[in-house]
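Q: Predict the bound structure with calcium ion.
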Amino acid sequence: MASTHCRSAAFTVALCAITAFVWAVASLSPESAAADWNGAIAASNPLNWYRLDELTGTTAFDYGSDGLDGTYGSGDSAPARGTAGPVGTGVTFDGDMDTIYLSGGTLTGDWTSEFIVRKNVAADRSSVLIRGVPFTFPSTALKLEQHEAPEQIGYTQFGQVDYVFTPPVYSPLDEFFHLVFVKDDSAVRAYVNGTLAGTRFDPISLYRYQIGDESGESPFASLDDVVIYDRALSPTEIAEHFAAIPEPSTLAIVCVVLGLGCLRRLSRRS
Ligand SMILES: [Ca+2]
Ligand SMILES: [Ca+2]
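A: Predicted complex:
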């Protein structure tokens, strides 16, 4: 009788472990993660949308309405491909000349530039996310770290001002986060993980020559997706986009841990 009860308990915990494991793996699947994000972005009708999931070839395809395909830099300027990100794969810039050429025109009206990005090294120098042609004026850049403002996210009107936000907006290290720059008539605003983090009442145009930088200000960073809009996204839209990015589910991790605990108990019984 005792033996039957024991086998029944063992079967139950084994079933628990297997169910938890399968559920956890399913909830973490890249396909379901990408589907939520892709749906949210598509609903906002982006101008340019670089998923950066190409593992080979020279083209960074534009999934936006503009059809402005980019070209991955080569040789010392080639970002590494296949970096695992929250919504798929992306690219990693090594901080030294890595770039993706877009060679697009300038957005002079309202615009939004959205990134899922991870800073891999604190550069303590200017680190460009997107910019105009180097050494030409006028031109601008959006930055993961600002010149002479280490760790602060900012933007630059070349030849004039290196802007930072009020309050200061800092880029976290070693974790993917959602970063959105929004420009309207009066200001540029920075949103971090769906929330307004800083404002600067100095609007700029968005130059779209390259992601990264071919001449020494490329970031030590990984980019999963880059999305550009020729309008100012609303705070609600930005929050919705952030909400569509899955984090590794705490519940799923708990279930995996519980599942492994159950299996350990079973192994001790046998
Ligand atoms: Ca991607
Ligand atoms: Ca390089």
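A: The pocket of calcium ion (ligand 1) is lined by residues 51-53, 85, 87-90, 224-225 (CB under 6 Å).
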